[in-house]
Amino acid sequence: MSAVLPADLSETEQRTFVALSEVLSSKRRGRWQITWKFEGLRLLGPSIRLSQALKDSGIGLLLAWPDAGAAALAKRDGPELAECCVDLNQLQRDPAWAGRGDLLLIVGAQPSDYETVEAICSQWFEPVVLLNSRLEDAAVGIGSVARQRRKGFMSVWQSAFHLEPFLQGALMQERQQQWELFRMDPDGYRWVKQFAARPDQEQIDEALASAGDGLRQTLGAMDRFIDDLRG
Question: Which residue among 22, 31, 224, 226 is the one 20 to 30 A from 110 at the CA level?
Fold first, then answer.
């Protein structure tokens, strides 16, 4: 059976919660990533709603933000989570935070936070989830530094949920299952292909092109069939 994309952000959040709940029950000390790659997405609201759902399910949560300003906004917009919110520098400075939760959810970390996040994770023995965080810097995408990072700290992270719309289609992965590729058609998204691992851009382009050729062949055959009926 072909996979189906979420209809909207609300369904995306719900399916992310289900997927994350499943992976958290499978490993005690997992390192997970959630990616909602929507252009222009304001992360504060969705992050608070996901965190609240996790807390309501009985998970002791610690919610970490890149800086004090972001943490303050989260406390303002999610007062019921205020005692769970902390910024990365505060978390690194004060070891007492390390025992404050069953799950560490890090929101929106950037390449400049790489060393801080790595240091925090080395002291955190419960699961850690990166939400819309990008710790790898394109500027060091090649060379010894990037290779060392990929072999070490970055290599342990697994995708719990990934949804990435783009111009020609969308890529989705959830619940530790395979990666699903969709093509954008005039009437909406259409499932194209499944991959065991995240496909690169060349694989995506090739699959979309092949699907387009198949559709054109099908439409051509239908046109000929209609012509035969008319004749």
Answer: 22
